[in-house]
Amino acid sequence: MLCGLLACGTFGTDLNAIIALQVFVPDSGAVEIGDTLHPRARALNGHGDSVAAAIVWSSLDTALVAVVDSTTGATLGKNQGVGRIQARVGNLRSNPLAIRVQTPADSIRPGTIVRDTVHFASADSLSDSLVARVFATPADAANLIGRRVAYSAATYPGGATGVTFQPRDLALTMASGAVGLAVAQVRMRPGPPPDSVIVTAVALRADGMAVPGSPVTYVVEFRP
What we know:
Blueprint: E1 2-8, E2 18-26, E3 30-32, E4 36-37, E5 40-45, E6 50-51, E7 56-59, E8 65-67, E9 75-77, E10 81-89, E11 92-93, E12 97-102, E13 105-110, E14 115-119, E15 130-136, H1 141-144, E16 148-156, E17 163-166, E18 170-172, E19 174-176, E20 179-188, E21 196-203, E22 216-223
Parallel strand pairs: 3-12, 14-22
Antiparallel strand pairs: 1-2, 2-5, 4-9, 5-6, 7-10, 8-9, 10-11, 10-12, 13-15, 15-20, 16-18, 16-21, 17-20, 19-20, 21-22
C-alpha cells in the first residue's frame, strides 16, 4: 500500500524542465524501531512525464528517523513518534513525508470469536468477522494502527471448494482502546462446500519474527 504527495515548482516556458516531485511511502508510512522503510520518488516535467533525475533524500527529524542512504531514501526508524523525510532535486523540494515510527508489537490474540458457522444455502456465504487483537506498548492510537496481519486458510476435506478473504488476506489494524484490531472474513467460492475451514492470522515484526501468540486460529464450519 502506497500513499503519495506531489510538490510543484514554478512553471516556466520549458515544458521539458523538471517542475514537480512525486513521492510515495509504503505501508501507510509506518516503520518499526530498528527497521528500514524505502520511499520512492520520481521527477516530472511540464508534460507530466517522468524524467531521469538525481533525487536526494534527507531527514527533517533526525532524532526519530535517519535517512541511511540519501540516494534511495532508505530510512531507519530510531525512536517512537512521527518524523519527516523530504526529497529534492536541485532547489525543488517535495512536501515533507510523515513517517510513523512504532515500537515492535508485543503479542497477538483472537478477538470476539474463534468459531463460526456459515449456512451455504443462504444468499451470501460470508463468515462473521475474524478479529485479531494486536498489542503494543505504548498503547496509543499512533502506535497501534497500521500493523500488518496476514490471514491464510486451509479447507477440509482436502480438495473441497476454497474460500476467498474479504476484503483481502492482508489486514491493517485500527486502534481500539489499548489494542489494534485487524479484521477479515471468508466467503465460500462456488462449488462443493467444504466441511470446515481453518483460518490462521499471523502478525510479523519488522525482523521477520512472528509476534508472540501467532498464529491465531479460527474455525469456520459450513452447513446447509
